[in-house]
Amino acid sequence: MLEESRRKIEETVSYLNNRKHISPKIAIVLGSGLGGLTQSMEIVDEIPYTEIPNFPVSTVKGHKGTMIFGRLGGREVLVFNGRMHYYEGYPMNVVTFPQQILKGLGIEIIILSNAAGGMNPTFKVGDIMVIKDHINMFGNNPLIGPNDDTSGPRFPNMSEVYSHRLIKLAYTKAKEVNVHLQEGVYIGVSGPCFETPAEYRMFHIMGADAVGMSTVPEAIMAHHRGLEVFALSVITDLGVVGQVMEASHEDVLQAANTAGPNMVKLICAMLPEM
């Protein structure tokens, strides 16, 4: 099992290293409705996931499913325009396959983004939340199974999954570009259902400020592999007690598209100093 995993990673890394024309140190994962960031990029190469050996394919609306090498905010970047989710039926090792190949591509920092439901009563639709910590409620973990000691420790320390350095930088740059930031704990769930009012209430009592169906497995795997992790949630619907919205996926995409430009502005301001 471990040897097969290594073989797939090496095969994918080899293909991408032979194809890429730039050498980015930063990777960005775009969540639902946040693909607009690519419009601000100078695109060097765009590769459909279907063309990449061993790479899973996103099946969800709002996730284009391409890997983009390009330049943004004066930096070379690798962008995943669309991600895979546990609720699509993929096992955790497949959901996090993109994070497993990044060290081999020379990536040192990963920026994760997502659309999330806000449970903090001070949040409103369109807010951007810096993720300071997470709660894993997937009922699973991407590190279950044989551990590759050459990639990361069997029992990784999780006291700082989300880089304090990059969170501090985010606040500094947000002031400069006039972007209002919220901060909070993201709770990751399997989905694909939106939460019931009772679940929203429970999650908020547990200490979560926003809920979504991604990011946590990716952050765990990236942290295990030694990457510096930074993550943002765009609040696209509300699950505040007494204010639970009847959200649809279309509503989420629309709200993310509306708030997306502020996220792009912030990331572009941060990139030169990352």
What does this entry look like structurally?
This protein is of the alpha/beta class. Helices cover 30% and strands 25% of the residues. It has a 5-stranded mixed barrel, surrounded by 4 helices. The chain starts with a helix and ends with a helix. The mean pLDDT is 91.
Quaternary structure state of the chains depicted: single chain
Report the count of strand segments. 9
Main β sheet profile: 5 strands, mixed, barrel
Over the alpha carbons, how many angstroms does the gyration radius reach?
A: 18 Å
The 3D shape can be described as globular
What is the first-to-last residue Cα distance?
36 Å
Name the strands of the widest sheet in spatial order.
Answer: 5-8-7-6-9
Summarize the amount of helix as a percent range.
25-40%
Mean pLDDT: 91
Order of helices and strands: HEEEEHHEEHEHEHEH
Poorly predicted regions: none
Give the percentage of residues in beta strands.
25-35%
Number of helices: 7
| Class based on secondary structure composition and strand pairing | alpha/beta
